[in-house]
Amino acid sequence: MSNGGPEKKQDAHHFSASKTSTMAYEDMAKKKVLVVDDSVGIRKAVRRLFASHPNFEIVGEAEHGRKAVEIAPRLRPDLIILDLSMPIMNGLEAAPLLLKILPAVWLIMFTAHDLPDLERVSRVAGIHAIVQKSNAAAHLVAQAEALVA
């Protein structure tokens, strides 16, 4: 099933496949990341995690999904890291809207919740991968690299 965006393969917590770049220089450019979480502390921690990785650049932050939907068209991120639980608009509500605006963007659900149906509802919303906040240091950047490679 294709929605006009990158092809996606779904498995466990990683629902992705490679996407081809039409221009070689795009592959060498830093990948732009938008961080969406209602916690300032989490946004700072994610920024620190990505700071030591030369392949990524944090281009913006948002405290809820509605703000992400507002700023994403201007920032044009390659990857959006979305919290699940946020006021105003949560990550599951924001994901399909973000994909409608930016069909080629990759989405990682970054959450403290381990709900039984989370993988299924995340796939339905268009999320490409889920990373638990408790595993952030070990998995978040690696998952981001796997998606945008």
General description of the model:
The protein is of the alpha/beta class and 149 residues long. The chain has one domain (27-148): Rossmann fold, CATH 3.40.50. It contains six helices and five strands, in the order αβαβαβαβαβα. The protein has a five-stranded parallel β-sheet, with helices on both faces. Helix 3 (65-75) runs parallel beside helix 4 (91-101).
CATH architecture: 3-Layer(aba) Sandwich
Strand content: 15-25%
Examine the coordinates and then state which fold CATH places here, giving the name of the CATH topology: Rossmann fold
Number of domains: 1
Q: How is the biggest beta sheet arranged?
A: 5 strands, parallel
Supply the helix-strand structural class: alpha/beta
Number of helices: 6
Helix content: 40-55%
What is the CATH superfamily?
A: Response regulator
Keywords:
single chain; 149 residues; alpha/beta; five-stranded parallel beta sheet; 5 strands; disordered N terminus
Task: Give a short summary of the structure.
The protein has helices at 24-28, 40-51, 65-75, 91-101, 118-125, 136-148, and strands at residues 31-36, 56-62, 79-83, 106-111, 129-132. With 149 residues, the chain is of the alpha/beta class. Helix 3 packs parallel to helix 4.
